[in-house]
Amino acid sequence: MIFGLDGVEIGLLIVFLCLFGGILSGFPVAFAIGGAAVISFGIIAALDSGGLLIHQAIDKSSAEFGALMGQGIKADTVSVFRYPELPRIEVPVFANGWEVALDRNVSFIVNRINERVLAGQSIETLLAVLMFVLMGITLERSKIANDLLTTMARVFGPLPGGLAVSVVVVGAFLAASTGIVGATVVTMGLLSLPTMLRNGYSPELSTGVIAASGTLGQIIPPSI
After folding, report:
1. What are the helix (H) ranges across the chain?
2. Does pLDDT of 104 surpass 60?
């Protein structure tokens, strides 16, 4: 044992530190979370293989545990938190080895991905994403979006960054009406990004305003 902590507790600390460090590393969150999972599992597997991670499990062969079973208590409800007085034994964190745990988790992830892919094909709501992206392309190619944003920029002209303010307003209402932030951000990107760049806005400010406008739709009813 390390610092007198249970092996599971040490594993949780390793996962937390890897995740915290991954998020602060500056990588995109999706890559940071996935990388933190791989790195933390590798560290835990190495410590477990070296015999450094020991889990204090309940001794199911003890008389005390048998007495609980005799009272009609289900075995899956017995834990060290509910019954801290039960005798314990030291076992590895991965009872059958980290290779078996890795195989089981990879199989679970692959099955879940297959289920999500097959289920996503039958969700009619997701058709709104394609339709709104198509709408954004149509408005951008027909120059209607450019005229719309230019007109709104004149309305907000007295304000600093009038075009950016108009993008936030249009994007927020569009996100609230669709309820799908991804579709709104893509659509507003097609609509407003070329216009903002032509008006001298920096790429960083333009993309940040567009992303913020789509996110605002989550808190405006009747967003789904």
Report:
1. 7-24, 29-49, 63-70, 98-120, 127-141, 144-155, 162-178, 181-198, 203-216
2. yes
